[in-house]
Amino acid sequence: MRVGVIAFQGTVSEHMRMADAVLGSGSALAVRRAEELDDVSAAIIPGGESTTIGRLMRNSGVFEKLKQLGDGGFPIWGTCAGMIMLAKEGDGQMRRTGELLGLMNMKVKRNAFGRQRESFEEELELEGIGEFHCVFIRAPAVEKVYGKCRAIAHLGKYVVAAEQENLLATAFHPELTNDLKFHRYFLEKAR
Amino acid sequence: MKIGTKTLKEGFAKMQKGGVIMDVVTPKQALIAEKAGAVAVMALHAVPADIRARGGVARMADPAIIEKIMKTVTIPVMAKVRIGHFAEAQVLEELGVDMIDESEVLTPADEQFHIDKKKFKIPFVCGARNLGEALRRMNEGAAMIRTKGEPGTGDVAEAVKHVRQISREVEELVSFQKHRGMNFAAGGIATPADAALMMQLGVDGIFVGSGVFKSSHPERYAKAIVEATRSYGRPEVVLKVSKGLGDAMHGIDAKSLQDSQKMQLRSH
Predict the structure, then answer these.
(1) R_g of chain B, CA atoms, integer Å
(2) Which domain holds residue A183?
């Protein structure tokens, strides 16, 4: 099995390293063109700057292709900026991000916890995964989920991880830890 | 809950990978940068070309303008402080900028020391021309390194030089570790304490020649240097073997040599 990491900006090499560790060396592919998605059976949208990643996805045609695939049951996981891209709706800041993939039934708030000074690490209990060390960096959060989308982790009033059939979104960055549990969870799901 | 950790600082730096960070002076310029797809903006009171042209002392930008820029864009906002000016950095941390650039573009406030960046919750970026500089800044707590280049000139040659220099040094270091795996100290070692010093600096062993045989008592010196190399971390042993050795080699102050007399310059 091969997994594509959307490789325009952000924590691309970190996700590829983790995916390779789960699936074996050479299993992760950096995706920059729409047709490269034909060679993989799942995709990860990494952390980074959502405005930038969104713009480059749209310019390259990866956006349209990923939207179609995601609608058809193709597994996609977004971390942080990736979570923002997957959301159907967002707050005022989100409208400045540009068009979203709009695949997951959730409302996301950008920079929900504040600026970099307020970034934090926290142990959280994740449904189906167990305790996990979560790294939040200028993180977004989910204000509400609906329809088939369900919460798998909470923090205060927010949902910080959500799942909707083939789709997965986290406000935190498993790719910045050495814990493979979350990558394994996604890749098992995609198998 | 943990805040201000190394993971969070370096994590923030990783989020910028593959992106463009743009210098801006006004909120209007910040909007242009955000719309163009910049991953972050760097707020300063004048761009380097203007700083160069105006002369005088360049300092941290007006916090009121930085604050306006923070309110204007949703992408991260960074700002510059003078080298060593930790109070400017405290002001920016209080303001809540996302990253501080301790920058040679502004007029340095401390000619000797950089800011102790580990004391701050927010991450720092610093300039470097070579691996040594990069590692010193990282040891002080910098989460990101950029080349210095020669700002405000529009001449990319210096940035190319610095990138190549750092890459070459990193490659050399990696291949050094891979192929040789060890490093011995040689050249000028003359006393047991010299040997202990080099060992504590992290070398794997010692080469010694003149230091033994140009001393007054070569056999004593030979034994003492061997013993100090073996027990380099135990000053009581180094003390014991250093006592009553006679005269160490007379020696030459290496700085008094002309380049043409220096053996170390015979290869590159």
Answers:
(1) 25
(2) 3-190
